[in-house]
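Journal club prep, shared notes

We agreed each person brings one worked example of a sequence with its structure written out as tokens. Mine is Glycosyltransferase family 92 protein. I'm keeping it raw so we can talk through how to read the token line rather than staring at a rendered picture. Sequence first:
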Amino acid sequence: MAKEKKLFIGVLGNYTAELKLLLTTLLVLCSVATLLQFIPSRFTISASDLRVCISRVSQPQTQDPPPSSPSTLSSVSQLSRLLSVPPSPSPPPSPPPPPSDSQTLKRDFNPYGSAAYNFITMGAYRGGLNTFAIVGLSSKPLHVYGKPTYECEWAPRVNTTAGKPITTVGYKILPDWGYGHVYTVVIVNCTFSEPVNVDNSGGKLVLYAATSGGGDAKFNLTDRIEVLTESPGSIDTSIYTPSSKPKYDYFYCGSSLYGNLNPQRVREWIAYHVRLFGPRSHFVIHDAGGVHEQVLEVLKPWMELGYVTLQDIRDQERFDGYYHNQFMVVNDCLHRYKFMTKWMFFFDVDEFIYVPPKNTIKTVLDSLSEYSQFTIEQMPMSSKICLSEDYGKTYRKWGFEKLVYKDVKRGIRRDRKYAVQPRSVYATGVHMSQNLGGKTTHKTEGRIKYFHYHGTIAERRESCKMLVNSTELTHEKIPYVLDTTMRDIAGVIKKFELTMIGSTLQGTRQ
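Then the structure, token by token:
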């Protein structure tokens, strides 16, 4: 045991100089590494470079014998040379390779429910021997951001050599001036190069509605829609000739009626206008939810006399268009009854058309016969100011009889309503048509106007909120003047109603 201890001490003594040199070298390197933290960044040797060098020097040589003094000095000199010569900067890291198919994360988009429909038809009508109009709704985003197209096909009932299917490009009209919501109104005009179904053998009108890349851009969907069927012998081609005389002289196309309407106001309106337009007139009322049981009772006597047609359009509420789809409704009425009347009127059930004394609706419209369209000036009436002399008996008076104060504020552009000769009109609006052939005039002052009782049609309580005894007044910064034009003829209208339908509506209440 003593011999082994002496041997270890002897071997250690032989390498004392080398161990001292190694420890001294490590001390110097650690000091240099500490100083490098305070050297400016432009110095090119980094602490990581020194750590590499230290690891190389201190790494044990397992395969070689313990280094002798000359070899140790050689290592130290090599390290000194490395410290004195800055290493070249390392190259930037290479960009990662593009991911392979196995590394790509595929994302899915899963649609549920239903988006806006491509096309919703309300009606399709013949406009002549070779032309048709298709009335409906379509997705508004599709028309704003896409370019949908339409093609029309007439398919004869019997496909013979003389009667093969014929096609034409459908020309679309958007008549709602951009007011549409989810849906916008579309009128597709189909004009063929030759008359169709001239032998009255029947056939079908087919619409091909193509999204043309709109909506789901991955698909160009085309819907085939059979929009009109003509049975054999069902067409009277004589009505499409210019010389044909229509059934009516004056026709009313009403906007969508909705809400809790006042039956008394509807009663007054229909009696007044049947008298104004006369026996060769007809009124189409569109029920969007407003013709409740009490309003229906008011309309029934006039329906039985053939003056009124009531159309239930409540189903249109499924499709979000402007104002209960009134643009679609009036366009359907235009094309459905286009050849049944000489003049067609568009206004609301809180508006009363008026012609001055010594004139009739016939003389006024005859004077405007050179125009395809004319507009009508508005007389806005207060819906709450009445005469004090009516105190205690306002409930017995009709609305236009007691509301006698006219708004005369200047500098305001007021809405106008209008009438057209429908054979010249391709599509229509609410306040006028912008798609027609022929002339339009707005200079109708003194010949025809309309009194507007805004808000009264849906008012179920007493209209008179203020009773005054003055010919002029200002209320809520609006000037009013007394105008008894309609009040003066109320008795005549009441007598006319009694003559036409008897006392059946005498118990009507608002």
